[in-house]
Amino acid sequence: MAISLTETAAKEVKRIMTDQAERMGMKVDDMHLRLGVKGGGCNGFDYLMDIADRKGDDDELFEVHGVKIICDPKSHLYLAGVTVDFKDELMGRGFVFQNPNASSTCRCGSSFGV
Description:
By secondary structure, the protein is α+β, with helices and mostly antiparallel strands.
């Protein structure tokens, strides 16, 4: 199963990549959104998001709305079918994971359990 971004999330990722590329003297086309998970958080796993300038040999690659997404195979086990959205609301702004594999999530949405 693939990893997906909403159009709103893709726009925000592209904005972040453009800002970072300008600061680092890089091309936006060479950048990837790295998604992953690590042990921890309130429910067992934390979501990870980062901008990467290269794909690892074992990374899986997805392209959604013009954003190249990479994910290591272990994380993909937990992120298969996930959709990442971006919310900009009165009470806060940030990325939101809609994960069909999660049996529980914390209130802030940054960790999950399976």
